[in-house]
Write a structure and sequence with these properties.
It is found in: Cell membrane; Membrane. The chain is α+β, with helices and mostly antiparallel strands. It has four helices and twelve strands.
Length: 183
């Protein structure tokens, strides 16, 4: 009888530790997210399942072109690509991104740019036209979806405060045929 109680207690402890460990990992380090919509096509598809690395920006700063998840004003979580960092001047002209006057390649847009026949994929704009400021404010990021014509992003909701960023999303784990690291 004592042996059964001891064995039950050991199993209970193991289960409690496993649940606590899973909660800590999910809350502080990694979390699953489901892509909802077409705003990140062709890079991400609707219903792709990804891992959000919540730890990514606690040890370092975000990089331009990282894909991030953040709390949007509509009480939803959005997934978008970082285009502008604090202090950057952002401009699009002739379907080319200019950051602080320097042109940047965006190879993740090549597939869509080839399909567009009725104008540019990304309409021309300056940061001042979109947010009323010449540079991305300190502590904020300017983000855009890869599907530029059909993305609600910083052009519409303004720059994203860093404290609203949940983390970076760089791994698709479902569906199985799409498992990969995304850039």
């Amino acid at each position: 009888m004592a042996k059964k109680k001891n064995e039950l207690w050991e199993w209970t402890k193991a289960l409690i530790i496993a649940v606590l460990l899973a909660a800590v990992i999910r809350y502080f380090l990694f979390a699953p997210i489901v892509v909802d919509g077409l705003s990140m096509m062709p890079t991400l598809k609707d219903q792709d399942r990804m891992i959000v690395n919540k730890f990514s920006y606690t040890i370092g700063e975000p990089d331009r072109f990282d894909i991030i998840v953040f709390h949007a004003p509509e009480n939803k979580d959005y997934i978008k690509r970082i285009i502008g960092l604090p202090g950057d001047r952002i401009e699009y002209k002739d379907d080319t991104l200019y950051v602080n006057g320097k042109a940047y390649e965006e190879p993740y847009l090549d597939e869509y740019k080839q399909q567009v026949v009725d104008g540019p994929l990304t309409e021309p704009f300056t940061l001042e036209e979109k947010i009323g400021q010449e540079t991305v404010p300190e502590g904020h990021l300017f983000v855009m979806g890869d599907n530029r014509r059909f993305s609600k992003d910083s052009r519409h909701i303004g720059p994203v405060p860093m404290e609203e960023v949940l983390g970076s999303a760089g791994v698709i784990y479902w569906p199985l045929e799409d498992v990969r690291l995304v850039k």
